[in-house]
Amino acid sequence: MEDVKAYIETGILELYVLGDISQSEKSQVEEMASKHPEIKAEIAAIERSLEAYAAAAAVEPSAHLRDRVLNSLLTTFADDSKFPSREFLESDIDDEDDELPAERDNVVALPTAKANSFYKYAFAACLAALIASCVALYEMNNKLNDTYGQLASLESRNHSFANRVNYLNNEIDIFHDPAYKLIKLQGTPHSPASGMTVAWSPQKQNVWIDMQAMKLAANDQDHSYQLWAIVGGKPVSLGVFDAKPDSAGMLPMSSVANAAMFAVTLEKRGGVPSPTMSNMVVAAAI
């Protein structure tokens, strides 16, 4: 596997796709690709990358340039018709003792320039390194996003846990604070099995409902329970709440300084200005 990876990183696959390698190197690449799927997949990936780059960098020639190129081709084809034919050259050779026309003596063959392979391989290696870097950056970005998501989830959990701890500390303070009175509300003839506990501090004017020890029938979506305090002979609403099977903890209600009695009625959802006496479920005098 390390040999395959090292072979890919040499940059010869990019040169193969560009068609800039010798026949022996081409045969070697094709043989390696037939043996190793990784090399075959890398060749396909390089071809897609070069096609995408060519499409992105393509430039549409202007109409003027296109006309010049076509006119140049037509002119070249027209000039070719002026050259002597093959039959003419062969007859010339027969007539001149197998010698070429004198005009051809001026043609000098130039030596073929040797290609410098170093730059080809360097370019291919740089291209391979660039592709590998892009893939690595993409994977690293995905890992960073996953890490950020995990950190956000942990932060949310820690925040919820801290709120829960503070809430439990408040409950402990309520039950151990002598300033609070624990008032047991008993069921009425309308609901004799009901019962609940209210914690009230006249000094702090705080009122809490013990939801965990509450014994009230679960209310529906159209109704809610409403807590009342009798102050100066008049009922004062301290807020509404729902009774659910999984209710737990202490629920804070509206503040009240002086109260002679607490009671709970079942009202339409959201509460009412005055209690419905026939719907009273629990009550207790202080």
Could you please describe the fold and organization of this structure?
The chain contains 7 helices and 8 strands, in the order αααααααββββββββ. By secondary structure, it is α+β, with helices and mostly antiparallel strands. Among the domains are: 81 residues, no CATH class; 105 residues. It has an 8-stranded antiparallel β-sheet, with helices on one face. A hairpin with a 4-residue loop joins strand 2 and strand 3. The longest helix is centred in the middle third of the chain and has 60 residues. The two termini are 84 Å apart. The mean pLDDT is 80.
Biggest sheet: strand arrangement: 5-4-7-8-1-2-3-6
Given the helix and strand composition, which structural class is it?
alpha+beta
Find the count of extended strands (DSSP E, 2+ residues).
Answer: 8
Instruction: Write down the Rg.
Output: 47 Å
Main beta sheet: 8 strands, antiparallel
Number of helices: 7
Strand content: 15-25%
Helix fraction, binned, reads: 40-55%
Task: Extract low-pLDDT stretches.
Answer: none
What is the H-and-E element order?
A: HHHHHHHEEEEEEEE
What is the terminal-to-terminal distance? 84 Å
**What would the average pLDDT be, to the nearest integer?**
80
Helix and strand arrangement:
Layout: H1 2-9, H2 12-18, H3 23-35, H4 37-57, H5 63-80, H6 86-95, H7 117-176, E1 181-187, E2 195-201, E3 206-210, E4 223-231, E5 234-241, E6 250-253, E7 261-268, E8 280-285
Helix pairs in contact: 2-4, 2-7, 3-4
How would you briefly describe this protein structure?
With 286 residues, the protein is of the alpha+beta class. Helix content is 48%, strand content 19%. Among the domains are: 2-58 and 116-139, no CATH class; 181-285.
